[in-house]
Amino acid sequence: MKDNKNHPYISELKEGVDKGQLSRREFLRKSVLLGMSIPVAYAMSGLAMSEMASAATPTRGGNLRVSMRVKEITDPALFEWSEPTNVCRHIIEPLVQNGSDGLARPHLLEKWEASDDLKTWTLHLRKSIKWSNGDDFNADDVIFNFNRWLDPATGSSMQSQLVMLTEEIDTGAKNDDGTPQKSRVASQGAVTRVDEHTVRLQLNTPNIAIPEALATYTALILHRDFKGNFQNNPVGTGAYSLSTIKTGVTAVLKRRTEGAYWGDAPYLDQITYVDLGDDPSAELAAFASDQIDYNYETSSDQVEAINAIPHVTLLKAATAGTGLARMNVTQKPFDDIRVRRALTLAVDNEKVLQVGLQGLGSVAENHHVSPMHPEYAPLPKLKRDIKKAKQLLAEAGYPDGIDLRIDCVASPAWESNTCLVIADQVREAGIRLKVNIMPGGAYWDVWSSTPFGLTNWAHRPLGIQVMNLAYRSGGPWNETGYANPVFDKLLDQASATLDVGERRKVMVKLEKILQDDAIIIQPFWMNSYGAANKRVQGLTHHLMHEHQFNKVWIVS
Fold first, then answer.
1. pTM attached to this predicted model
2. Pick from 142, 187, 143: which is nearest to 164 by CA?
3. Which H or E run contains 388?
4. pLDDT digit string (tens) for 473-489?
5. Radius of gyration of the chain (CA)
6. Taking a C-beta distance cutoff of 8 angstroms, is the pair 166, 146 a contact?
């Protein structure tokens, strides 16, 4: 990136740091998003730039064996979980990649530039990149992907992330209540081709987080001729090709031939994903018997057992990942706010953290904005109130209590443990909550439609990203069915507010709305744990569960 043409807003950010009004970490994040190179941004921030170091000399060859659920791969724009993305990430790549420090780095992009008003973003693509089928990677590929993301017919969660490139239209149809049916489509001129390797984005409102949106796991770039099932024709720009995939069993990636990849050649010859199912003891046994080298995630209840294996290292990352016991407000009895509030009032989040997650995290506040998010605004501590919960249930027509069910997945175990603790707590208020523990495949089929379910949400850098994905009216990942025009309008305002202090003033209103409307029980923020054989080098456990293995090697 050309640091001699810094965005003018960077000087304001630096002044904020000098006056003590802005943290060095927030300066670092924003200056990088505005186009400053990472080394220069670190230098200006005064923070140390950590580099991965190892006593071993990198060696080529070997097969990295990774324990992870192997899920079906069809359309990467529709991925709902990180696991299929990790398989695809080494075959198809993003325009922007998040490093283990959480900073957005250009990947298929050479650089990006933002206009002074942050409404025009120019994306400069790397040249001389070829697809695995021999085609040149160019602006047509990028525009093809943007058009798919922004098309409501695709149904990609990327539309929620890039809402500033869309506009609301009247479809001409009517809702059940007779009101006009609305839809979101790409704004006229939102994405244009400048030349073979340059694409321009024209936003309706200013936004500093475009690079972070392009680094999300649904933003992998597909070839312009993609037809709908990537597994059938896995053309990519990445360093690996898909050799074998069998859902629920294995996925094998093999390094492309020497010189076929545009970047530095990776060290590993092969990456093998192994699906060991829902039983965590199978993974522990595989580590102990040297059958796997790394895992997707170590559940909190397995931390002690992993630490007892001599040749395995426990890896940790603090995250804004969380578990949500979420209620779908369009389905009975959760369409009654009194029932929802009774549930939230009957739960002590601190107790759920300590028992359900063994205390390996921090307490949350039922609004999905983390202290790790720069715009986070603290709210008064939540208080458990069984008397009020019973009163609300009686008012809702359940004076003798209510029978409910919550669906959750069997593995990782913290998810079912969390539900069991919640069920134990709400029983005191007369809420008889049955915990329905399901195999992974069965739960993933209903996670977005079940009336009451526990969902594992991964880390995202910004609170506004989470809210656009999960709580904006009509969003593809709005699993609660929540639709609040006041909330949407405030979210638009927060997304367009560049100054983090001013955005925090809007965010506190958004947090309070979600907390008051009681659509989620969110007990905690989670630390993320992984485990690796000590012979694996160059590996960092990514706070967003991203697998970036091009610089990983194995010591013989």
1. 0.84
2. 187
3. helix 386-395
4. 988 889 999 999 999 99
5. 24
6. no
SS3 state at 240? strand
Report pLDDT digits (tens) over 305-325: 999 999 999 998 888 999 999
Q: Is the alpha carbon torsion for 305, 308, 312, 315 positive or negative?
A: positive
Tokens for 280, please give them: 């965590």
Q: What is the pLDDT of residues 20-38, one digit of tens each?
A: 877 888 888 888 888 888 8
- Between CA 67 and CA 296 the distance in angstroms is 6
The answer for residues whose C-beta is within 8 angstroms of residue 58's C-beta and 6 or more apart is: 267, 537, 538, 551, 553
> If DSSP codes are grouped into helix, strand and coil, which group holds residue 75?
coil
Which amino acid is residue 119, in one-letter code? Answer: K
Q: For residue 446, give both structure tokens.
A: 């209903």
Q: What is the DSSP letter of 254?
A: E
d(CA 301, CA 417): 10
Chain position carrying tokens 């695809």:
88
- pLDDT higher for 178 or 454? 454
Sorted by where each begins, the domain ranges of the chain are 1-51, 318-527
Q: Which of 242, 260, 239, 241 is nearest to 250 (CA)?
A: 242
Q: Which helix (H) or strand (E) holds 114?
A: strand 109-114
pLDDT tens digit string along 455-476? 999 898 889 999 999 999 988 8
CATH superfamily of 318-527: Dipeptide-binding Protein; Domain 3 (3.10.105.10)
Distance CA 145, CA 488 (A): 26
Q: What is the rounded distance in angstroms from the CA atom of residue 547 to the CA atom of residue 59?
A: 19
What 8-state DSSP symbol labels residue 451? S
